[in-house]
Amino acid sequence: CHHRTKWRCPECHISCTSWNTVSSHLWREHGIDIELYSCDHCSYKTNSLTRLLNLHRRIHSEERPFLCDVCGKGFKTTKQLRNHKSWHKLKEKSKTEIAEKLVTCITCGRGFTCARLMRLHVQVVHKRLKPYLCYICGHSAANKSSLRSHLSLHTGLRPYSCDECDYTTRDHNNLRRHKMRHSGIKRYKCPLCSYSSIQASTYKTHILKKHPEQQDGLLYRCEICPFNTVKKENLLTHSARHEVLKTQDTNAN
């Protein structure tokens, strides 16, 4: 494995700069577990005990210790909190200001808050790259979470379980939505009838189907294209994309 300060994978002989990188590669690409720390609740493995204890295990916990100082909403990680607070800042800016701060995809004009998200967008949407391979059947996935979800089809594991009923799932987002049903909290309430929903998407569908003649007062609409949404911040981000495209057209001419 070790040759001239580089480490090589014994399976495919790819070169790596450290043993930690090799051990992660062996698990991700070849399904070989060497010196990895394992989660007790799901199939997640990592070479970092700190990452397992302080980051990953929060997924399985309902604790949300990181609170937004604007609205009080709690989050499991500081990264989630930072992303949330960026929405508060977004509401205070104009479409032009938002457009100036976005990192833009040169292919489609979509804007992102950071270069990393833009690169992921290009790889998945435009280049159609799916670099994460299932070591059992060869299925390819665009990201690690999709691969983990796929692997659970082979293992039969449904690691996320409800503590109030016997519901289990492969996806922690499905569990989050399921638990909202137990709580009885339905954030989206129709002002025209008794309908309420736990998700924005189903609320929007209700408005479009049941109250099509009154949807203008209930949905935020783009003035340029047919896009509509129940969230003002989504419209701001969408409108900023038009500003980016307009700027690109102006510069091109």
Walkthrough of the structure:
The protein is α+β, with helices and mostly antiparallel strands and 253 residues long. The protein has 9 helices and 17 strands. It folds into 3 domains: 7-60, Double Stranded RNA Binding Domain (2-Layer Sandwich); 122-183, Double Stranded RNA Binding Domain (2-Layer Sandwich), CATH 3.30.160; 188-250, 2-Layer Sandwich (Double Stranded RNA Binding Domain). The strands form 8 sheets. The chain has a 3-stranded antiparallel beta sheet with strand order 1-2-3. The protein has a two-stranded antiparallel sheet with strand order 4-5. Strand 6 and strand 7 form a beta hairpin. Helix 4 (95-101) crosses helix 9 (232-252). It comes from Panstrongylus lignarius. Residues 37-65, 66-93, 103-131, 132-159, 160-187 form the C2H2-type domain.
Give the helix/strand layout.
Blueprint: E1 2-3, E2 6-8, E3 15-16, H1 19-30, E4 37-38, E5 45-46, H2 49-54, E6 66-67, E7 74-75, H3 78-91, H4 95-101, E8 103-104, E9 111-112, H5 115-126, E10 132-133, E11 140-141, H6 144-155, E12 160-161, E13 168-169, H7 172-183, E14 188-189, E15 196-197, H8 200-210, E16 220-221, E17 228-229, H9 232-252
Protein name: Putative transcriptional repressor ctcfl
Organism: Panstrongylus lignarius
GO cellular component, one term: nucleus
